[in-house]
Write a structure and sequence with these properties.
The chain is α+β, with helices and mostly antiparallel strands and 198 residues long. The chain starts with a strand and ends with a helix. The strands form 2 sheets. A 3-stranded antiparallel β-sheet has the order 1-2-3, with helices on both faces. A two-stranded parallel sheet has the order 4-5. The chain is built from 9 helices and 5 strands. Helix 5 packs parallel to helix 7.
Length: 198
């Protein structure tokens, strides 16, 4: 599970990463983590500091992206990559890797927003704060910091996988199955999982 804090919404518009947390999930447990502020030489807008608490001074003193991004890519390796609104975090990962002539090697992309919509239908909002609150998953520290968000998103992913397991009698949920559920319309998820059982 990965979460970036950034200076804006899109790397195509010049936004850069300011912080990352990557948490490895094995057997329904968080087993390892990589967390770092990142100095990309970027300006941190005031509204970003208000939202995240990440200041220009914190970023200026952080390790440079040329150090953090290779370590992050090595940490992820060829594992499946998950995020809450995964396309957002993946596009920043790919953009920062490309700046350094590096390649991401993750084998799958899993979006916990899409999974939650399919497995827990009917909620009014699937933002991380709202869906985690509705499911009783609590933040241990301030939201909108990479590690706190990644931890809550990890527990949401674990809860979602357990729900699938309990509903369909599956003892383990491979990442490839979660990726297939992501790509399946809500109306066809049950048929997909019934087929998986066979």
């Amino acid at each position: 599970m990965i979460d970036f804090e950034t200076t804006g919404m899109s790397p195509n518009e010049g936004a850069r990463v300011t912080e990352v947390a990557a948490l490895r999930i094995v057997g329904g447990e968080i087993t390892e983590r990589y967390v770092s502020l990142i100095n990309c030489g970027a300006y941190v807008p005031y509204f970003i500091t208000q939202l995240t608490g990440i200041t220009q001074k914190m970023v200026d003193r952080a390790p440079p992206s040329k150090e953090v991004i290779p370590q992050l890519l090595d940490f992820i390796g060829s594992d499946a990559l998950a995020a809450h609104n995964a396309s957002f975090d993946e596009k920043f990962l790919l953009a920062e890797a490309e700046r350094l002539d590096l390649e991401a090697r993750h084998q799958a992309l899993i979006c916990s927003v899409k999974l939650a919509r399919r497995i827990f239908p009917g909620y009014s909002s699937y933002s991380l704060g709202n869906i985690s609150r509705d499911l009783g998953i609590r933040f241990k520290s301030a939201a909108h910091r990479a590690e706190a968000d990644a931890e809550v998103a990890s527990h949401l992913l674990i809860r979602t996988a357990r729900q699938i397991g309990e509903r369909y009698g599956l003892h383990s949920i491979p990442p490839e199955l979660l990726e297939k559920i992501n790509k399946t319309t809500a109306a066809k998820v049950d048929a997909l999982l019934q087929k998986h059982l066979k």
